[in-house]
Amino acid sequence: MKVVLLQGSIVGSKTRTALQYVQTTFKDKYPDIEVTMLDLAQYDIPFSDGRNYLEYTGDAGYVTQTIMDADAVIIGTPVFQASIPATLKNIFDLLPEQALLNKVVSIVVTAGSPKHYLIAETQIKPIISYMKGQLTQSYVFIEEKDFHRKEIVNDDILFRMDRLIEDTITLTNALEDIRAAKEAEYGF
């Protein structure tokens, strides 16, 4: 199984901290799963110009191909101005319409205010659905107060992060089993 952790912003530390926790959990509890962290701050990605993702080279080509090759994607994003960052939207724009077909997608949102908890519902989930991704049932919303010195200090958040990881793995395995059973019906 290949899992991509997509850090959807080039600034800030809270989303990065959350995804580093996810990455460490995978490494410690699920060492057989291949996990790739795509921290957009480490890549030079141009704005989407509408061409096919296979035509992009360099960082844009690497990031899009890595997402396309994944079985599951965990998107981490902060909330800026009551919206997702432009860097994350640009990644969605670089990918084809059905880029998330047969992929499980989970969401981790960080925000400075509890008033932004619906950003995942109103902005991220519709994009993932449009791109044919299979969403995990719930997402993790982390507020400013849940962090201290670049660490998550709320045990409930850590529990929910662990559950999100388990749900991502379980749903990915279930969908693979369903696809394999369906293909076996063809008999060739």
From TrEMBL:
Domain NADPH-dependent FMN reductase-like residues, every copy: 1-143
Name of the protein in question: NADPH-dependent FMN reductase
Q: Recorded E.C. number(s)?
A: 1.-.-.-
Q: What class of enzyme is it?
A: oxidoreductase
Q: Which organism is it from?
A: Oceanobacillus luteolus
InterPro entries assigned? Flavoprotein-like_sf (IPR029039), FMN_Rdtase-like_dom (IPR005025), NAD(P)H-dep_FMN_reductase (IPR051814)
Indicate yes or no for the key word Oxidoreductase.
yes
Q: Which UniProt keywords apply?
A: Flavoprotein, FMN, Oxidoreductase
Matching Pfam families: FMN_red
